[in-house]
Amino acid sequence: MSKSKPVFSSSIGKKLIMSLTGIFLCLFLVVHLVGNLQLFKDDAGLAFNKYAYFMTHFTPIKVVSYLLYASVIVHVIYAITLSMRNKAARPIGYAQYDGKANSKWNSRNMGILGTVILVFLATHMSNFWWKFHNDEVPYIEYRTDLATGQTTARELQASEFHDYQETVENNVQILKARDLYKQVDFAFKNVALVALYVIAMAALAFHLIHGFQSAFQTLGFNHRRYIGIIRAIGVWVFGVLIPIGFAIMPLFFFFK
User: Fold this and answer.
1) E-strand stretches of the chain
2) DSSP sequence for 216-252
3) Fewer beta carbons below 10 Å: N end or C end of the chain?
4) Residue 110: exposure state from Cβ atoms within 10 A (0-12, 13-18, ≥19)
5) Residue among 18, 82, 14 nearest 210 (CA)
């Protein structure tokens, strides 16, 4: 590497940034899955709508969300750049090449898997993030009797809603919120959207099984003492548990 060449503009530098952003995105997936588990509560979406408001209005979380958006963009751009650079470095293919003998299927098809995930992200953001931030979701009012703990819910008209509001009147807690839960319920009645989510989670599983371990190898964590633990976390946590957790959500709303 030339001494005058900036580290982060080199292939090694780009791989380093991809590794760091990839690990950050993996951590986000864990937090996002835990938060989205509120969808399974039988409370007409009360817990999930509170969670949605908190995630979009708590300042530290908002700062992290901007880092998340930047990480996704950088990760994708550098992945494309590295792929194009590798292809340019070998303009003529091997006379004989057996990919199966040299690498695993998911490592050879990270570009295809990444493209599927990118299409999923665009669809996901347009259906939920965009509509929630642009006031295109229904409104709801929850009334919880503080003496009995019983909660009732009713849909609000646009004229009845001004902003997220939580008050107490006559020992009754009243919450008015944007009903992202109902938008989720509505969206996942679409079989095509549910199929896309399941396929995307399968792609995510294969992507993470290779990407998680690869990221730690790039960062130098490749010692025999802990590479087995890293591999196990990559396969069972990020390759199995998290994708299945996310895939169950659209299936739950479609079949319930």
Assistant:
1) 139-145, 151-156, 165-169, 172-178
2) HHHTT---TTTHHHHHHIIIIIIIIIHHHHHHHHHHH
3) C
4) middle
5) 18
**Smallest Cα–Cα separation from 48: which of 165, 182, 150?**
182
Say if CB 137 and CB 180 are below 8 A apart.
yes
What pTM was estimated for this model as a whole?
A: 0.86
| Alpha carbons 120 and 116: distance in angstroms, whole number | 6
**Euclidean distance between CA atoms 50 and 173, whole angstroms:** 14
Contact 117, 25 (CB under 8 A): no
Cα–Cα dist 106/208, whole Å: 9
**Spans of the chain, pLDDT less than 50:** 1-2, 4, 94, 97
> What token pair was written down for 103?
């690498």
Distance between CA 185 and CA 253 in Å, rounded?
6
Percentage of the chain with pLDDT > 90? 71
CB 187 within 8 A of CB 127: yes
Instruction: Count other C-beta atoms under 10 Å from residue 76's C-beta.
Output: 17
Check residue 10 and give left, alpha or beta (phi > 0: left; psi -120 to 50: alpha).
beta
